[in-house]
């Protein structure tokens, strides 16, 4: 095939450039962006393009389908396929507030979903997929959970793993199982909002313990244990939400030792460990009898699965946990659990995880370049923590960002008490398209560089 035979907008397909249908779709998107293809231009028939590229018809069909999904193309029946007119965005908000994994480049998620569900339906008893499951997951689900947390713990006992409908449900169930109304739970001053929400609903009190650049300070933790007699301490030690701090191994060991001496249980919520670059061992490894370890798939794969794994060694405590969980969330949806298990055991989850890792690092490089000295990301999580210039406060900046079509989260949303620092959290995965992410970051950078009095709003 000669280069002259190719459409002008389509470069030669790369041997190691990822799935060919995605290369074609990406070339279409680039051509529309740079004006090589304009709305109303007619594309080659699929068979003709397949012959030119020396690929099978299915590859071109999938490429055109992907381009339609991106709103690049439209079919006009027998007249063929045409470049679509730009889609009008009636709500052009650029969402930097939702902490979700980015769509990985080179991973065909739709195909992975279809293949996974096909395998589940072929191998599973369909009646079991549509009935109640009360035991914290099937044997296969617990085996998959043990496989998922194997990088953290070596070869954990699958019998100690409980399958839950998400980390939030696991946190709430632990709170119900281990505490009573009025009990104190310790946490860092900036912490996961779901903890505060559950504590408020259940009548538990969150007491903040100051943190430094390495996480919760051990001497203040021990002092708080003596003063407040807490039952639990909540820690998110790896790429902490929202500050993106990863607690070093020495600090983890110190906190585990204090918890043992003071007989305080630790809830170790660790959703980002598998995304981190060479993270320290979990706190659980320093005091396994003292810690409840939570690993969710929502932050590494996709929130839609709603599957988390909780490591609880003691059988009586596992039963107490399950009783508490069933009071508000009877079980993981069996189809979701079966799909998660299928993906973990056949290696699909590992491939998706690697794609998310790669995409996350690329997006952090973009954010660091655009936000320069203001950037506070670790480079391998889903979010970054931006401390603001003195002329902005976080709530004011969040409101101004909203007026500019950007959603960010102010520090107040994470405060467990005692005030909040002057910062915002931005999330790098919730905007699917990198170009729109870049636009959002550039708009945010421009806003940060301006003083509030120079930001005017229309009055109507």
From TrEMBL:
The keyword Chaperone does not apply. It comes from the Bacteria. Keywords: Aminotransferase, DNA-binding, Pyridoxal phosphate, Transcription, Transcription regulation, Transferase. Residues 18-86 form the HTH gntR-type domain. Transmembrane segments: none annotated. PANTHER family: HTH-TYPE TRANSCRIPTIONAL REGULATORY PROTEIN GABR. In the C-terminal section; belongs to the class-I pyridoxal-phosphate-dependent aminotransferase family. This is Aminotransferase class I/II-fold pyridoxal phosphate-dependent enzyme. It comes from Pseudoduganella flava.
């Amino acid at each position: 095939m000669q280069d002259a035979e190719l459409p002008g907008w389509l470069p030669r397909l790369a041997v190691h450039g990822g799935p060919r249908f995605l290369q074609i779709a990406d070339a279409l998107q680039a051509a529309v962006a740079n004006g090589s293809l304009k709305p109303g231009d007619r594309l080659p028939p699929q068979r003709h393009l397949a012959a030119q590229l020396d690929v099978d018809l299915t590859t071109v069909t999938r490429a055109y389908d992907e381009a339609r999904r991106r709103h690049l193309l439209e079919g006009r029946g027998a007249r063929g396929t045409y470049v679509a007119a730009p889609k009008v965005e009636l709500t052009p908000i650029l969402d930097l507030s939702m902490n979700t994994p980015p769509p990985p480049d080179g991973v065909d998620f739709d195909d992975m979903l279809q293949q996974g569900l096909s395998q589940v339906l072929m191998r599973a008893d369909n009646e079991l997929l549509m009935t109640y499951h009360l035991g914290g997951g099937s044997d296969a689900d617990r085996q998959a959970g043990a496989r998922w947390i194997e990088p953290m713990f070596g070869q954990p006992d699958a019998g100690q793993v409980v399958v839950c409908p998400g980390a939030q449900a696991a946190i709430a169930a632990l709170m119900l199982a281990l505490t009573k109304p009025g009990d104190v739970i310790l946490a860092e001053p900036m912490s996961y909002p779901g903890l505060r929400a559950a504590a408020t609903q259940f009548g538990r009190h969150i007491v903040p313990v100051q943190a430094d650049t390495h996480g919760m300070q051990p001497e203040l933790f021990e002092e708080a244990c003596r003063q407040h007699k807490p039952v639990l301490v909540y820690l998110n030690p790896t790429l902490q939400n929202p500050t993106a701090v990863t607690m070093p191994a020495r600090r983890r060991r110190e906190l585990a030792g204090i918890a043992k001496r003071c007989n305080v249980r630790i809830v170790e919520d660790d959703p980002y460990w598998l995304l981190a670059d060479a993270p320290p061992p979990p706190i659980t490894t320093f005091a396994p009898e003292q810690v409840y370890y939570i690993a969710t798939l929502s932050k590494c794969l996709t929130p839609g699965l709603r599957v988390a794994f909780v490591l609880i060694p003691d059988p009586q405590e596992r039963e107490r946990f399950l009783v508490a969980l069933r009071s508000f969330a009877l079980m993981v949806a069996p189809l979701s659990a079966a799909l998660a298990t299928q993906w973990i055991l056949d290696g699909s989850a590992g491939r998706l995880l690697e794609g998310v890792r790669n995409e996350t690092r690329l997006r952090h490089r973009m954010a660091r370049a655009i936000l320069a000295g203001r950037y506070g990301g670790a480079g391998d999580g889903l979010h970054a923590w931006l401390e603001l210039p003195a002329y902005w406060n976080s709530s004011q900046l969040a409101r101004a960002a909203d007026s500019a079509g950007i959603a960010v989260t102010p520090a107040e949303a994470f405060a467990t008490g005692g005030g909040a620092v002057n910062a915002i959290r931005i999330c790098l995965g919730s905007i699917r398209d990198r170009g729109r992410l870049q636009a959002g970051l550039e708009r945010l950078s421009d806003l940060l560089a301006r003083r509030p009095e120079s930001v005017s709003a229309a009055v109507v």
